[in-house]
Fold this protein.
Amino acid sequence: MNITAASPFDRLWRGEDPLRWIEEAGGEPFRELPDRRTTRLEVEGQVFFAKVHRGVGLGETLRSLASLRLPVFDAGAEVKAIARLREAGVDVPEVAAWGGDDAPAHRR
C-alpha cells in the first residue's frame, strides 16, 4: 500500500491500514455509489472529506475502453486537478492524504 498523509493522519495511521481506518471511522455519508463513497469526517476538531474508491472491476474497465474512454481507477485525476488549481492561485481544499493498493481494476 502506498499512502501519503499529512497531519493528523500521518500519526493516526501509523501501524494501521488507512483504508480500513477510514471505512470504520463512520462520519456523515455524502455520496454512496457501488464503486466509491464520499464521507464527511471530523477528526481532532477538523473537518475532512474522505473519498474511497473500491475498484471498478474488469467489466467496467472493458466497458470504458470499448466506449473509447479511459477507466477511472482512483481519485488521481482529482488530486492532480487540485494541485494545478492551487498552482494557479485558486482557493481549493487541501489534499490531506492520498494513496492506494491493489491492481488497477481492484484498486482501493
The beta strands are 2-5, 28-33, 36-43, 46-53, 97-100. DSSP finds four helices and five strands in the chain.
